Write a sequence for this structure.
């Protein structure tokens, strides 16, 4: 961090080389206030454009992002250290979500008639979803485009203005996203970025002009953000960490399961909220699975197949989890404590790690994995569900029926079957967790509605003769008729056993 003469600034640094990638303002509470104020004005204009006016501009923004794909990916690559291909991939997913949100906003949120029921036979009922005004987005560094765009794109499509506070580790790509937006929407400050450290995010979360905060980051920070939101009763969507499990059934395609497990655990150096952190393998498949996984893991190269640990302090957590697992009887099948050599961590595969150890219960966020042999699928599910987190999960099974049953019973927001993290690429599917993984949803129709408030309107078309019940002039006969009607409609008992 440096202090310039007029404005205080901070540097973003390439974690692989230590080189300074960019220098950005440390926006204080006054700067955040100015951004939210101007966003409020922009939000009114943006909302007034209607779905069609916004769609035209957002589809243009999508094209601008696509044409700048390599440029965006390069900034991601420099700020996080992840391979260019991975940076391209996350940007491609972000673009497809923006496209879906834009094209589906009217269908999901636009005015529609809803049935009135017999009691409201003289009414028409209309439901629509209105924007909240200014949405504050606070994002993480691990997928600095894909993750925040899951809130930004959906909030914009729903008619809100956005003030985005990117992670202090990845401010440059956040600034670039907003800069590119002004090519498509030059008229007003509909999408702005404020840069800085935690205090900048805190100022955004605590600002009374914010209609909703979309936070993605750790569970601990989510609690602080929620406390800041409480001051103004600002609603919050919290996308937090995870400790996702992958379950391997006895009849699963073992090479495919091992391949998926490895990608899920090690891609992006394991710094994925829906990364695979724990594996439970049914006894009969265990030896084959371990052989396949071990061979593949030994062939992986940190610094080539995946990048460095982006946040330096995370290497201490990874080391602590590995050392604790080994000290408590766990075995390192691939790598070990020596695999942690900052800024890189080589692949680590651990077995026989006690279920109550930090490597099994806490988010490691590194290219490490624990594998446990289980007697049955039921045991696998019980163990998978026994942590405080509940974000994603994976099941490999030869039986679609068993896999679906397990997926439904898994305590998580999303589960992939015979593939890993595949739900992320389906824009119509909502994304979010339970428990310590947070609440609320981005993506899909739920993700659009998350950034709106429902507006319910009932219009009387004609008075119901003899049923003037919401009036001081109602008569006993009218109340009698009402009771008769409700008894006819709702009073018949059903045998609970039939
Ligand atoms: P952090 O919780 O450290 O930070 C998240 C964001 O919050 C950053 O922009 C950070 O700013 C900001 N922030 C920090 N303190 C405050 C505060 N008091 N008030 C407001 N904002 C604040 O998370 P990471 O950036 O380390 O991201 C990794 C975490 O995110 C992991 O737990 C991961 O699982 C989770 N994650 C969840 C996803 C999901 O969709 N569920 C997706 C991706 C990641 P600064 O960086 O400047 O400190």
């Amino acid at each position: 961090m440096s202090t310039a003469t007029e404005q205080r600034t901070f540097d973003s640094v390439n974690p692989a080389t230590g080189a300074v990638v960019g220098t950005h303002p440390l926006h204080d509470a006054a700067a955040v206030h100015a951004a939210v104020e101007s966003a409020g004005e922009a939000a009114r204009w943006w909302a007034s454009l209607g779905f069609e006016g916004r769609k035209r501009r957002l589809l243009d923004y999508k094209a601008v992002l696509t044409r700048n794909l390599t440029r965006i990916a390069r900034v991601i690559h420099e700020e996080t250290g992840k391979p260019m291909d991975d940076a391209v991939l996350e940007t491609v997913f972000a673009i497809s979500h923006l496209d879906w949100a834009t094209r589906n906003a009217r269908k999901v949120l636009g005015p529609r008639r809803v049935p009135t029921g017999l009691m409201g036979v003289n009414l028409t009922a209309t439901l629509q979803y209105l924007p909240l005004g200014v949405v504050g987005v606070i994002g993480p560094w691990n997928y600095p485009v894909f993750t925040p765009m899951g809130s930004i794109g959906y909030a914009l499509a729903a008619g809100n203005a956005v003030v985005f506070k990117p992670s202090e580790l990845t401010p440059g790509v956040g600034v670039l996203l907003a800069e590119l937006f002004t090519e498509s929407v030059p008229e007003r400050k509909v999408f702005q970025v404020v840069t800085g450290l935690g205090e900048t995010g805190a100022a955004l979360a605590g600002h009374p002009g914010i209609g909703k905060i979309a936070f993605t980051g750790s569970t601990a920070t989510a609690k602080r953000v929620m406390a800041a939101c409480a001051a103004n009763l600002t609603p919050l969507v919290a996308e937090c960490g995870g400790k996702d499990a992958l379950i391997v059934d006895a009849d699963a395609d073992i090479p495919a399961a091992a391949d998926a497990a490895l990608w899920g655990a090690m891609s992006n150096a394991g710094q994925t909220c829906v990364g695979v952190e724990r594996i439970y393998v049914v006894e009969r498949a265990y030896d084959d699975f371990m052989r396949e996984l071990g061979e593949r893991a030994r062939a992986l190269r940190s610094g080539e197949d995946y990048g460095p640990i982006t946040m330096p302090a995370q290497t201490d957590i990874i080391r602590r989890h590995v050392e604790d697992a080994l000290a408590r009887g766990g075995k390192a099948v691939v790598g070990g404590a020596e695999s942690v050599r900052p800024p890189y961590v080589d692949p680590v595969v651990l077995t026989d790690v006690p279920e109550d150890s930090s490597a099994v219960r806490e988010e490691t966020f590194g290219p490490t994995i624990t594998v446990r042999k289980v007697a049955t699928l039921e045991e696998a599910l019980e163990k998978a569900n026994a942590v405080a987190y509940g974000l994603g999960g994976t099941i490999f099974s030869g039986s679609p029926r068993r896999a679906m049953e397990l997926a439904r019973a898994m305590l998580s927001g999303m589960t992939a079957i015979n593939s890993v993290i595949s739900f992320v690429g389906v824009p119509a599917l909502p994304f979010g967790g339970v428990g310590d993984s947070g609440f609320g949803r981005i993506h899909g129709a739920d993700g659009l509605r998350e950034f709106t408030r429902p507006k319910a309107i009932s219009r009387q078309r004609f008075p119901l003769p003899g049923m003037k019940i919401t009036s001081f002039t109602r008569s006993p006969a009218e109340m009698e008729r009402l009771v008769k009607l409700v008894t006819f409609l709702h009073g018949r008992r059903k045998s609970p056993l039939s």
Remarks:
- The radius of gyration is 26 Å.
